[in-house]
Each structure stands twice: as C-alpha cells, then as structure tokens.
Amino acid sequence: xxxxxxLVALFAASATPVCVVMTQAAETAEAQEVEVFGEGKLAIPxxxxxxxPKMGMIEHEFEVTTGEGDDVTTGxxxxxxxxxxxxxxxARWKGQFAGGNKEANKTEKLKxxxxxxxxxxxxxxFGVSMGGGPFSGGKVVQQPDYAMTAAILANPDGKTYFxxxxxxxxxxxxxxxxxxxMVKNLK
Length: 187
Prior knowledge:
Shape: globular
CATH topology: Protein Transport Mog1p, Chain A
Number of strands: 12
Number of helices: 2
CATH class: Alpha Beta
Order of helices and strands: EEEEEEEHEEEEEH
Distance between the termini: 32 Å
C-alpha cells in the first residue's frame, strides 16, 4: 500500500506543501484452516477472528462482526464434531427461535464432494440457555432479532460436524455469504 503524506512547512515563506510517498506493508491475515475428521479442510474467511471457545465441547470458535467503532456488533461461529442425528438437531435449533420471518427460515441440502451438507437459516427471538448448555435446563433468556446460519457436514460414514454462526441478525446477514462459501469449498 502506498501512503502519500503532504506537509506544509508553516515557517516557510511560501507555505508550499511537501509531499512524501511512503510505502506501508499491507496487513495480511494468516490463512486459517480447520480440519474436519482428518478427511476435509475448511478455509476460514479472513474476517472471522479466532477466539478461545466459550465451552469445552466446542473445538473452534470465531468472532464475526458488522459495523465500526462504537457501532460494532459481534456474533459467534462455533465448530465441533457432534452426534444426535441431522433432523433432530435441526428441529432443536428451530425450537430455539420464536417469531421472526418464517419465509427466511429454510434448510438446503447440498453435495460437496463426498459430504452431504445441510445449510440451515433461522431468525427471530433466540432462546439462550443460561444453565450451561442446550440440554442442561436452567434459565432461558430471549435475544430478540437474532439469526443463525448453520451447517451440518455429514461424511459417508455417518460422522457429523456442526458449524453454527449465531448473533444479532445484521451480523449473521452480513457474514452469511462468506460462511456459505466456506462450507461449499470444503476440500
């Protein structure tokens, strides 16, 4: 990246600006990949920032954002191997949302190489379990205007890997294309 800096010498009689061309190394985000069962790899979008997982069962966690400065809003992307079946998990996720735009809630099945991939979009008021997880009971707090784009990757042996992006609807909407591109490019 080239940066041009112009300075005006205030003490000079002519006050003619002096411009200097400075070269600045462009910031490069280190390419990140996540391995899926030793059988595939996901290239993580550069805008997804790796963070420490908030729960022990989550293998990888990333932060996604929209906005700038004081207007930054964040969401989470979590990744982990999981069980429980494809349809029961999708049904559970749907049960965590109320209201919202029902026409935007959808499930799409894709074939990516040898993998069956299910992409799930949900929106509305999201019920967050404050008791330690979705199966542990406890208090449920409603987060209005939330959304989720999730993917279940199923290999031919029946192993499933879950990737979920969840947060305020504008964050999920702003990062959805990169999320889906990541899943569709499973290698």
